[in-house]
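Long-time lurker. I teach an intro course on protein structure, and each term I like to show students one example going from raw sequence to a predicted 3D structure in token notation. This year I'd like something fresh instead of my usual example. Would anyone be willing to generate the tokens for the chain below so I can use it in lecture? Attribution to the forum is fine with me.
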Amino acid sequence: MISKLKNLGPGLLFAGAAIGVSHLVQSTRAGADYGMGLIWALLLVNICKYPFFQFGPRYAMATGESLIEGYKKLGKGILETYYILNFATIFTIQTAVTIVTAGLAATLFGDFPSINIGSKVISSTETWTIILILVCVSILIFGKYKLLDRLMKIIVITLTISTIIAVTIAYNNTITTFSLTQIIPKNTADIAFLIAFMGWMPAPLDISVWQSLWCIEKNKSSKNYSPKSALFDFNIGYISTIFIGLGFVALGSLVMFQSGETFSDSASQFATQLITMYTVNLGDWAYVIIGIAAFTTMFSTTLTTLDASPRAMSKTSELLFKKTHFLNYNFWLALLSAGTILIFLYLASEMGLLVKIATILSFITAPFFAIINYRLITSKHVPKDWHPTKKIHILSWLGIVFLIGFSIWYLTTL
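-- Reply from a regular --
Happy to contribute to a lecture. Here you go:
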């Protein structure tokens, strides 16, 4: 058992990337606005997306290469489509997760004085953004994958423990009736929220690519990372995302449901509201617990996405353009970091819009990733022993139908 725990890595990195905006922001809002009424959506989307995420480590361990290289084998057009979609979303996704992290940092650790640079006023939250990006870049440049791997074990364990404590105390202190009645949204605004909620629950499907890249890195650094341990590692990470997602829905429901409060779209104000509402309802002691849970949630996502997106863009550039001596990991890391800071400086007040755009775009593109991942894992490029079982085949078909159906439903309700 100890050896299995030591081999955990890419699965926890997946959990770190997944447990972010979808959990802290969207799941908490789901609980606050609908009580426990959207649990069905959380469980359904996790079940339907499961095989397509699992195909990432499955393909990597079966072939010794990432899904990106597999996409090229399916056709250059597919790889080019992935490249365009990835480039179109990496800045929005990174900005969305960093905005929330910076807002929490400002609330928990204090504000910096505003700085005037010409006509631009740099707020405390924007200063925190720059600091967080620099800290994450330093970890990735100097510590590389090994440090990221070790840090994520600590972060996910801390997050899980603090979430369990917070939910337990909230349940013991609640005076409202705890209802499990499920709700199916009917009006346009509720349907839009439902799609956004499921768009990043537990994560965008393109994270399956990141998972395959992390598996390759883990296999290089650990002699004991076998195919069996890779799937065990992934399942642990995936179950963690479901468990913590349920925890944040429960927290939102127990503490905020029917409170009459509405969340601000400003990063710092949202963070302040989130922490304040918990402490008002649970007591001042909850400030530390909720603060740790919230900040570790978002910092883990900021760190893992800042590593994975450049890793994916670097590999795709290498395969598409051959001569990519400058389009390497460090180039994309620098570009993504600079782009995130610039977007944040001018769009910090539009956190809600950025999150909504990123989550909805992720859901609409989900069928593309589901179909190509399924095509790849069942193709001649994968040894037959690694092809999915009959049950996973059926779940994959149902998942593809579900993702296409919900995307069409959303588009027809706009």
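Some talking points for your students: The CA atoms of residues 138 and 144 lie 9 Å apart. The first strand starts at residue 115 and ends at 117.
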